[in-house]
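This is your field. Have a critical look at the following sequence-structure pair:

***
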Amino acid sequence: GFDDLGKETQAGKPWEPISDRKIRVGLVGFGRCRFASQFSFQTHPNVEVVAVSDLIPDRCAELAKEARCEKTYPSLEKMVEDDLIEAVFVATDAPGHVRHCITALEHGKHVACAVPACFGDVEEGERLLEAVTKSGLKYMMFETSLFREDCYAMRRAYQAGALGRIVYSEGEYYHFFGDEEIGSYNGWRHGLPPMYYPTHSMAYYIAVTGQRFTKVSCLGFRGSFKQFQPEANRYNNPFDSEIALLRTTEGGMSRIAVAWGLHGMEGEVGRVGGESGGMVGTEYKGSKQELLPSLVRPSLPPGVDAGGHGGSHGRLTDAFVTSILTGRRPIVDIYDALNMTVPGIVAHQSALRDGEWLDVPQYIRPSG
């Protein structure tokens, strides 16, 4: 599932190794989506999966089998005590992300984490930022839209100057739930406010430009599905779908949609329009055609599948591994991760206030 491209045929420049070192990785969190094993850590030529963990023994055993690893731990807290492990991929429940990432960082592990960076709590996100900066270790959020074919092409075009300042952008994430009970640890998905899970949409501006949002006004739809009645979920959330308008640091506008109750529309997609050019999908229209670089996504290491979310999984893993091997900043570091997550938390508060404009915290990467 997850729009899985599997063993994608490569069209770009062949992948070239930069090191023969193998980073020793621990994977945690199998769950309904089998996420910890879906990103090809176990087949990357610069990775050795040395341990896995899941709270449920049967799932832990299955994860070990898929990850080709014999060593298992009953919890992340036990796993991070293993001094052999250099990095951890956190694919646990969203409410646990900050706690789990901080625990790994405090034990000296680099961290890759599934989305979102934090969950419904701005102060929690700021604690994560503090832990990352204090540790001096790598932190990367695995935002899948980043390496979708369209978003990647938009980022390349923007960085080359072919789009100019972005006047207007859109990011949409549609995943129909209705009253379906989607399995999740302690039921965290039940009645989930859409804007607590905004990163797939917000990547179509933040991951394209590296800029930020400054203000937000958001409206929510009060549907008829039982799980989205305020008294029926732990979040007191009345909305199954939320649509936000945000002001950007470039002075432009971005419409961000996240919807669980919208039938007939599925997937993740975005559009960008700038002063010099715009893009829908991978097609560029504008006045700076001569500035366009190759828009073809990077090739993958041998044995690594492109994988799910439109072929993003393998590329995210390769980017994280490369950041450790080279010492470079991860492609979605803690600042970008929070800039894709926290605006959604504020947007939900705006929706509860019938669209009141609210200021969005901005996370600015220190220069140098």
Observations:
- The CA atoms of residues 138 and 324 lie 7 Å apart.
- The radius of gyration is 20 Å.
- The mean pLDDT is 95.
- The first strand starts at residue 23 and ends at 28.
